[in-house]
Amino acid sequence: MNTNYYKKTLDLSEADSRQLLTLGDSLIEKGFLRQFSGSETKVLLYLLTHRKEASEIEIELPLAAGALGMEIEFLKSALKGLARTGVINQKPAEENNFFRCFLNLEAVLKKNENKKVVEESSTAGAEIRKQLINSNSASKNEIAAALISFLPPASRNIHRREEIKSWLNDFEAKMLKELVRRVDKWLKRQGATDHLQGAYAYLKAIIDSWYQEEITTYEKLQQQDKLHRETKELARAYGIRSFSSNTAQLKTFQNWLSGEQALSKELALAAIREAVRRKRDGQPSLKYVEDNFINPIKELGINNLADFRRWLQKEMDGKAAEADSRDQAESDSGAKKQKTKKDKAKNKKKNEKDDEDSYKWKDFFIDFDKYKE
């Protein structure tokens, strides 16, 4: 014989109660109540606890309406709705103030088992999560139902329920509500509206990271999310487009943004951009950025962009003065070389002219003896 030590019962009866109703959690989770509207559910509970004989029921409409807080017309409408589902078969009533019917639970239960209304529905889980995400407050039971909706029906066992129960004790409800929102968003990106192979694994990975990083409050979660977003911004500014959150580079960025000497995102971004601008022969290494910008910023206690720009300008002015000195020396040297070159060219031209003149008179000869008298 199988013994279920987990089974618990809650007795809401009074000493003078004559009929008791036992409704199991597994039946509810399989969607038994989902096929009825809110008013129909109220009326069904009334009928189930007011049986006359076996499956036969007879109620006085005014008494039932008073007990349920409903107008008689609304009560009659709900009874008609229950008849349409097949859970009751209405009998003709001889008096207007009475309603008679037979229960037909077997047919409804069989129909429910075949369809598996909640577990097999393509929208049941999505609807449960939507209600939780849009609610201003949520009970632990509602959060647990939303979390378990990511699991395939066959995996919704006692072990998983106990696991989810431990999460409800370890994390703030607001965190778990945010967890449902994130996994639901991921699920929609995959093109699914209900449980999908891998959805619970994705959810479990997030939970494990929370345990590892000791994030147990919503405030800490927000801080971690902020650090993650800013780290990605630094990575993009540095030139990283595709990355994993566990890479050494991202750990370096996180170290810049956290700890006792944490920099603001704006300062870290300015440091990276300046390093990239100065390092024109290729992408600067993170050590170059750290040694030349990050560490000096921390050591000097620079905590805003204005101070950073002033420090940077001072550094650049010094570099510029050295550059101007070198440029002037190179300019003077170049001018001197240019002058020497011009003088050489001028002398060469003059010598060539002298040579040409010398050549002309060299071959010119007069025989003066020939013209003697």
Automatic annotation (TrEMBL):
Comp. bias (Basic and acidic residues): 317-335
Region (Disordered): 317-356
Record-annotated DnaB/C C-terminal domain positions: 161-224
Biased composition range(s): Basic residues: 336-350
Family, per entry: Belongs to the DnaB/DnaD family.
Protein name: Replication initiation and membrane attachment
